[in-house]
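Subject: sequence -> structure tokens, single chain

Hey, anyone have a minute? Need the predicted structure for the following. Not urgent.
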Amino acid sequence: MFTSKSEPLKLPRKIFVAFIRKALQSRYSLFFLNGFLLACLLYFYMEDSYERQLIKAMADYVSDKAQITGNREEDLLLKSLHLTNYLGKSRSFIFNDKELHGLKSSFIHPVTVDLQTASNACGSYAYILSRILSELNITNRIAQMKVNGKYGGHILVEAKTSKGWVVLDGSYNLLFRKPDGAMASFADVMANWDFYKKQVPADYNFMYSYQGVQYTNWNKIPVLMPMIKNILSVFIGKEEAENYSFRTYLLRKYNLLFKATAIIYLTLVIMMVRRYFNRNRRLFTIYFPVLFHEKDISSVIAGKSATNRI
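Reply:
Had a minute. Here:
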């Protein structure tokens, strides 16, 4: 008699499912899970609040230093770029060759880790700059540069201004100027790299030659990501969907974890309430008849009468 290779896996899976089901039916397990989720919610809220205060302090500094008169929009971008580069450079030489191991730095990796260590190289600069610009209510997107035929070889930020998109490289404190003095976009630099490469600093890595860019890796998760892209294309247009940056909205990781945990917690609370309600349905029917149909009330009364006769 032949057995399939998957059969040995079925028994442990069934045991695991049965264990989870039994645990969720246990009052003590539910109370423990309830407390654990509340503790996670509190932790994620505190971390997100702390992170936002740090970013807000930096954004306030930029806003205070920017010119009130003249081209304030451009000055906000320049001050944000200079601050990001200064913060990264002042820390990167300490943590440049060091790897941080741990749940927070390795798995969650919030922007505070980038701010403290700049250990994620160009990514750290881009994430910090993006958060500062978002705090200043400046629309921006994370640009993944194509290097040696692969996207993501260098990470930049593009900010939306009244005159269009502007590319900002926090790693090199770099902003390009068009021949007329206006700030250039990634597309501008890519179209005429021979002109713009003369503006880069002496320590610039010329591998980053603006060969191409993507703002979201739509092939990262097969089926799911292309499906999301198609849905976005219907609502915002094909070109806008192609240039849509998801990563910009994923930088507040503690906020996302807080929301995800809140959904799980509310689901658990609903399960607990339903379980309590089903176990005490008769009492609820008697004391809160407004919530029930007449048939439910009649059946409960009939059942109570039959019990009394016995």
